Structures are given as structure tokens and as C-alpha cells.
Request: fold
Amino acid sequence: MVTNIGGLPVREDVIVTIAGTVSGFSEDEFLLRDSTGEFGLHQRVTTG
Reply:
């Protein structure tokens, strides 16, 4: 069990659900923060 959002696995085949407060954003990423830390999330563009 991950108790720190900074410790989340970063892999293409892993889907996790997280909750927190958006603490900043730009065109293709945003920062999600909770009481344990901050995690940067980047947009992934796919073509189908």
C-alpha cells in the first residue's frame, strides 16, 4: 500500500486512483498535492 503519493509506481501498465488538491498546472501537466507530498501528472496524447 502506498501512503505517499510521491511513491506511486510510474509505469504504463499501472492505473492508480489518487485524490488531492491541484496545486499548480500548465498546458500539459498539473501538480497534485496531499498531506504526504506532491506528484506531477503529465498529459499523454495517444492516437487510435
